[in-house]
Design a protein that fits this description.
This protein is mainly α and 293 residues long. It has two domains: 213 residues, Up-down Bundle (Rhomboid-like fold), CATH 1.20.1540.10; 69 residues, no CATH class. The chain has 13 helices and six strands. The strands form three sheets. A two-stranded antiparallel ribbon has the order 1-4. Strands 2-3 form a two-stranded antiparallel ribbon. Helix 6 packs across helix 7 and helix 12 runs antiparallel to helix 13.
Length: 293
């Protein structure tokens, strides 16, 4: 493992831990890390073509890596590595415009778990269906992203969203229609010759769809819901953004989703006494200076 790969692994682990404990939007964090990882890949390649560089080889996942303890890390690094600018930008746009919406609905911590579980299942599906080919490799966050879409459509199938085809905006449509279209394209790609890792996409999609209800019900949601009353939250809604989130909390009928909105609200609100950030603890919600909500 060269120093470039080691730096990327440290960056992935550190950024994920920071997002988890500080509850900073993982959609933003993972997008930034993917961009920086691609920059590191370009820098490490020097004058050579980055796709054939030693760093790319050490980052990409090959099915038989599952039997090599020294290369198991590629299950993780391949999810942050991309084969080109177009590949990178497409994944970042999906995370930014779709993944971020789902993260706000279920909370940052469940979203992180869903992202990695879907990505892992996608990678395992790719490995299982290509086990006899020791020369085929996969890179990209697509398996995890499609898994997030699968989870999104399982929990909110009638959520409406707009998509862009090139620069042409499409009319808003239910999420299930979008995911059905993606699934159809994967089947078309699977029947033809393509360099797209369809197996990883399908594996991630199935995992996201099946596991979404379980991942979205992490204990943190129930703990937040029990500790914070809506009347206390209304007093903290002092900005237009917080007032908008407060309306979503009051209108939401699904308990676990309401708890996720409360978690998001608390991550944006400030202590009314000292103006510092709020933290959720076992004994309640308090600010960084110890004032209880």
């Amino acid at each position: 493992m060269n120093v470039w790969v080691a730096a990327i692994i440290v960056m992935i682990v550190a950024s994920t831990a920071y997002s988890y404990y500080r509850q900073m939007s993982f959609s933003i964090v993972v997008s930034v890390v993917c961009v920086v990882s691609f920059a590191v890949l370009l820098l490490s390649a020097g004058s050579a073509y980055y796709g054939n560089s030693e760093t790319m080889y050490q980052l990409e996942f090959i099915p038989h890596d599952l039997t090599d303890p020294g290369r198991l890390y590629t299950v993780l690094t391949s999810m942050y590595t991309h084969g080109g600018i177009g590949h990178l930008l497409m994944n970042i746009l999906v995370v930014a415009f779709i993944g971020m919406g789902f993260e706000q609905r279920i909370g940052t911590r469940p979203y992180i778990l869903m992202y990695f579980v879907a990505g892992l299942c996608g990678t395992l599906a790719f490995a299982g269906l290509n086990w006899g080919n020791s020369f085929i490799a996969v890179v990209g966050a697509s398996g995890a992203i499609v898994g997030v879409l699968g989870a999104y459509v399982r929990m909110f199938p009638h959520e409406r969203m707009s998509l862009l085809i090139g620069f042409l905006p499409l009319p808003p449509m239910p999420l299930w229609v979008v995911v059905a279209g993606i699934l159809f394209l994967q089947i078309v790609f699977l029947s033809g010759q393509t360099n797209i890792a369809v197996e990883a996409h399908l594996g991630g999609l199935v995992a996201g769809y099946v596991l979404a209800p379980y991942v979205a019900r992490l204990p943190l949601h129930k703990r937040v819901k029990k500790m914070v009353s809506q009347s206390a939250l209304r007093k903290l809604a002092t900005t237009p953004e917080l007032k908008s989130i407060m309306r979503r909390i009051e209108e939401e009928s699904i308990p676990d989703v309401r708890s996720a909105w409360i978690e998001h609200f608390l991550s944006q609100a400030k202590c009314p006494q000292c103006g510092t950030k709020l933290k959720v603890r076992k004994d309640g919600v308090m600010c960084e200076r110890g004032h209880m909500l």
